[in-house]
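Q: I have 444 residues here and want to know how they pack in 3D. Can you give me a structure?
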Amino acid sequence: MQVLGQVSMQMHRTGCRLPALDRGLVRISNMRTDWKRQLAVFLGGQSLSIFGSSLVQYAIMWHITLTTQSGVMMTLSILCGFVPYFLLSPFAGVWADRHDRKKIIILSDAFVAFVTLVAALVFMGGVRDIWVLLLAQALRAVGSALQAPAVGAILPQIVPEDQLTRANGINTALQSALLLISPAVSGLLLSVAPIEALFFIDVVTAALAIGTFVVFLRVPVHEKALQSGTVGYFADMKLGFRYIREHRYLVPYFWYFGALIFLITPAALLTPLQVVRSFGPEVWRLTAIEIAFSGGMMIGGALIAVWGGLKNRMQTMLVSHLVMALGAVVLGLLESFGVYSAVMACIGIAMPYFNTPAAVILQEHVEEGYLGRVYSILAMISTALMPLAMLLFGPVSEHVRIETILILSGVALLGMVPLVWGSRRLMEAGASVKAQDTERAIVR
C-alpha cells in the first residue's frame, strides 16, 4: 500500500500491487513499535470529537423533524449536509494524500468547532430560524469532508496490516457506544436546555480532541507527503480516478456501494419521520430507535473485532447486506413500536459486518499514496447518491406511506445479493492480501 518512485508508477499503469514481502517491509519501516498506545490515543481523540458532533447532529435533526414534520424540510437539511461533502471530497482526497493527515484532522476539527460556536452565539442572540441550522449544517459538512479521507487513510499508518480488522472493529464498537449514549444525552439536554447548549458542548469536546492529538498522537508522515509536489492538484485528482479505473475490482466495488446506498436511504433517513407519523412525535421515541440501532452496532463491532468475519470479506458484507435488506422490509410491516426498535437493533448489529470488512478491503489492497483519494471518491459517490435518493424518496414520502417505500427498497436490496455474490471481481477483492499471495505462490 505504498507509492515508491518509478516502481509505483509502473504498478499504477499495470494495476499490480507490491509483493507481500515488500509491502510488509515498507509498512514496518513506517510503523511505530507502540502502535497500540497510538491507536488508543487516536481512537480516544476521535471519540471525543464524534461525541460532541453527534449531540449537535441529533439536536439539529430532531429540531427540524419535530418543528416541521416535513419530508421536504428533511430533504433540504440532508442536502445541506451532503452537497458540500460531495463537492469537496475529491479535493480532500488529494490533500489527504499530499499532506500530513494528522494536521488535516486537527485543522478540520478546529473549523467545525468554530462554525458551531458561531451558530451557538447567533441562537443566543435571538435569531432562531431554521436557516441558521441549515447553514451551520452545510459549513460543518465542509469540515467533515476535509477530514474524512484523512481519517480513513491514517489507520494503516498506525496499525500493522494483520491487525486492521481488529482495529476497525474496535473503532466501530467505540463509535457505536458513543452513538448509543449521545442520542440519550442529546434528548435529555434538549428537554432541559436550549439547543445552543449542545453546540457549546461540541466546541469543548472538539478542543479536547485537538489537544489530545497535538500532545499525544505520534503518527509517521506517509511517504507521498514527504515528497515535494511535482504535479498539480487536478493532475493528482486525475491520477486517483485513473487508479480506480485501472484496478479491476474497484469499479464494480464502487457500483455496489452506490446501489446499496441509494436503496438503503429510506431506512437510514426516513425512519425518524416514519416514527413521528406512525407512532407519535415524542422525543423519547426518536431517542429509543437511535439507542437501539447504536447499541446493536456496538455489539456487532465488538463481535467482529473478536471474530474477524468470514474468510472472504465480501461474503461477510453480503450476509450483513441480507440482514439490512430484510430489516427494511420488516420495518415497513410492523405496528408495534417495541418490535420496531428490536428490528432496528438487529440492523445495527449487522452494520459492522458490512462497514469493517469494507474498510479493510480498501486498506489492504489500495496503495497508501492513493488511499486518501480512493476514500474521497467513495465518499463522493455516497454523498451524491444519498441526497439524490432523498430528492426522490423525500417528496414521495409526502404522498406515499413510508412503510411502502421501505418494503419496496428492501425488496430491491434483496435482489442485489445474488448479483454481487456472482461477481468474480468482487469476490476476489474480498479475499485477504495474504490469501491471494499464498494462492499465487501455490500456482507458481
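Q: Anything worth noting?
A: The chain has 19 helices and no strands. Confidence is low (pLDDT under 50) at residues 1-32, 435-444.
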